[in-house]
Design brief:
α1 (40-51) runs parallel beside α3 (93-107). By secondary structure, the chain is of the alpha/beta class. It folds into 2 domains: 4-201 and 256-383, Purple Acid Phosphatase, chain A, domain 2; 208-252, no CATH class. A hairpin with a 2-residue loop joins β3 and β4. It starts with a strand and ends with a strand. Helices cover 26% and strands 21% of the residues. Strands 5-6-7-10-12-11-13 form a 7-stranded mixed β-sheet. A 3-stranded antiparallel β-sheet has the order 14-15-16, with no helix packed on it.
């Protein structure tokens, strides 16, 4: 059986000149409507424009699509009752959310998970005795508002209150899924299929970076040079370098599962207890990653994250080289693969013995005259554990 999984951001809510539209005019893809999406008519028009792409039409015609929304189907960095890209002068958020989900239900190949409730998207698909696929909502159902480092940084002194931040971050009740969805997800781990698969939006792997790197005070290359100096000639470290190395690592993305670590820990412990062969599929970042999901340094699951097909990734902000990709893999325990540059897709195949992820990339997404980037393609296989 074959299916396409779409893990969110099928459309973007932005108006012209905000995100990824510098070539829109030359490609005859100027955004419609020509403003940020707020109303039902707005969202409907943007879906209609998106679906006018003949290649996208061909994709829908060729394979079944199993889809969930991420944030941009409504607006950037949503939580259950608000969003980073929603202000009071844009009206009531609940009405905007309802309009967005109505348009989503009209344009996407999806039935409500609960009869007549378009706000519920968690559902399961079973592929024989091979795998159970649970599609989650990590955005709208119950997510608490994302933390922001600025909340814990004194605006005058620029001093970061690490203690208060960590207390807020590690609150046991802090939730991404909500109790009902959490219980349903845990119950899926006991499914009799060989593989238990979660299809969801955001990175689950622990992606901690040295605080000075995450805060963009120094580059990862500079930090690792200081680390090397500390191992080879520790007596030559300056006081500034010692201070840099003494700082604890912090999440680089508080919008991901790293912003909700206690719930992630409970979920992974439940998978471990159930002896699940857990595979997590993620989108959101527009870049490719492979993470080993760990509890007490023991792997309890594998995460494969897909690059975006056309939307820009980190290469828009960081001119990442293969050496940079190698550095970030070295810096993050559990991370075994990273591509921060190329557009493409992820193909995941399952047998009863192993799961294989194949990342595929192309040289251009703005022209039909492109080449497959075979030298950048990557494959990883993992054997079942139970």
């Amino acid at each position: 059986a074959h299916a396409v999984l779409h893990l969110g951001d099928y459309i973007y809510e932005y108006g012209p000149g905000v995100y990824a539209d510098k070539n829109a005019k030359s490609m005859n893809r100027v955004m419609q409507p020509a403003h940020e999406l707020i109303t039902l008519a707005d969202y409907r028009q943007r879906y209609a424009q998106t679906r006018s792409d003949t290649d996208l039409q061909a994709l829908h015609a060729s394979l079944a699509m199993i889809a969930v929304w991420d944030d941009h189907e409504v607006t950037n960095d949503t939580w259950s009752d608000g969003a980073e890209n929603h202000s009071d002068d844009e009206g009531d958020f609940s009405q905007r959310r309802l309009a967005a989900l109505q348009a989503y239900s009209e344009w996407m190949p999806i039935r409500p998970a609960v009869h007549n409730d378009i706000s519920s998207i968690q559902r399961r698909f079973q592929f024989g005795d091979l795998l159970n696929l649970s599609m989650l909502d990590t955005r709208l159902e119950a997510r608490e508002q994302q933390l922001d480092y600025a909340q814990f940084t004194d605006p005058q002194t620029k001093v970061f209150d690490a203690k208060s931040f960590n207390q807020a971050l590690h609150k046991p009740e802090r939730t991404l899924l909500g109790q009902k969805q959490f219980v349903n997800t845990v119950s899926s781990f006991n499914n009799a299929t060989t593989w238990q698969v979660l299809g969801q939006q955001i990175l689950m792997g622990e992606m901690l970076l040295p605080a000075p790197v995450a805060g963009q005070l120094i580059s990862l290359e500079e930090y690792q040079a200081i680390e090397h100096k500390a191992s080879e000639n520790p007596q030559q470290l300056s006081e500034t370098e010692k201070t840099i190395l003494a700082q604890a690592p912090i999440p680089y993305n508080l919008d991901a599962w790293d912003g909700y670590p206690q719930e992630r820990q409970r979920l992974l412990k439940a998978a471990q207890k159930a002896k699940a062969n857990l595979v997590v599929l993620a989108g959101d970042t527009h870049n490719a990653w492979c993470n080993e999901l760990q509890i007490d340094q023991r792997t309890v699951g594998i995460e494969f994250a897909t690059p975006s097909v056309t939307s820009p990734g980190l290469e828009e902000y960081v001119a990442a080289t293969p050496a940079d990709e190698a550095r970030i893999v070295k810096a993050i325990p559990g991370l075994s693969y990273s591509n921060m540059t190329d557009r493409g897709y992820l193909a995941v195949s399952f047998t009863h013995e192993q799961v294989t992820a194949d990342w595929n990339y192309v040289s251009s997404v703005s022209s039909k005259d492109y080449q497959n980037l075979d030298k950048r393609a990557h494959s990883k296989s993992f054997q079942r554990q139970h």
